[in-house]
Write a structure and sequence with these properties.
The chain is α+β, with helices and mostly antiparallel strands and 144 residues long. The chain folds into two domains: 7-40, no CATH class; 49-143, GMP Synthetase, Chain A, domain 3 (2-Layer Sandwich). It is built from four helices and six strands, in the order βββααββααβ. It has a three-stranded antiparallel β-sheet. A three-stranded mixed β-sheet has the order 4-5-6, with helices on one face. A hairpin with a 5-residue loop joins strand 2 and strand 3. This is Osmotically inducible protein OsmC. Pfam families: OsmC.
Length: 144
């Protein structure tokens, strides 16, 4: 069974001087302003597609790892995941790199098994799979 989530964006004007608003339709958590400047230069209180991708990736990765930990007999006290998404305009506009950083507290888990599970979650996360065209997705995973 597929579950659908939706968001929408209304944009006015051209790329550089125009602006838009992105709305989270399913959750109703809000409407957020977007501009080219916020995407390619300074955020100035606005969001961007890359920030939204970062949020999705950090969340999906944490969920995937929590499930893999459970399947291996462990429960995390805490998984603190950050995703940084680089938007590069030097050679066309593209996402050039994503860096996942994880600090985890998992009682009774040895580092070797943790690293194996952390990497497997990166590979198995549906958002990672959707972002497979990104040239570099790295993971720095540490037990606290």
């Amino acid at each position: 069974m597929a579950v659908t989530r939706s968001a929408s964006t209304v944009w006015t004007g051209d790329l550089v001087s125009g602006a838009g608003e992105t709305t989270f339709e399913t959750s109703k958590i809000g409407t957020f302003p977007v501009t080219w400047r916020a995407r390619a230069e300074a955020a100035e209180g606005k969001t961007s597609p890359e920030e939204l991708i970062a949020a999705a990736h950090a969340t999906c990765y944490s969920m995937a790892l929590s499930n893999m930990l459970k399947e291996s007999g462990h429960t995390a006290d805490k998984l603190a995941t950050t995703a940084e998404v680089d938007f590069d305009t030097s050679d066309g506009a593209r996402i050039s790199e994503i860096r996942l950083t994880l600090e985890a507290t998992v009682p009774g888990l040895e580092d070797a098994e943790f690293q194996k599970l952390a990497q497997a979650a990166k590979e198995g996360c549906p958002v990672s799979a959707a972002l497979a065209a990104v040239p570099s997705i790295t993971l720095d995973a540490r037990l606290a």
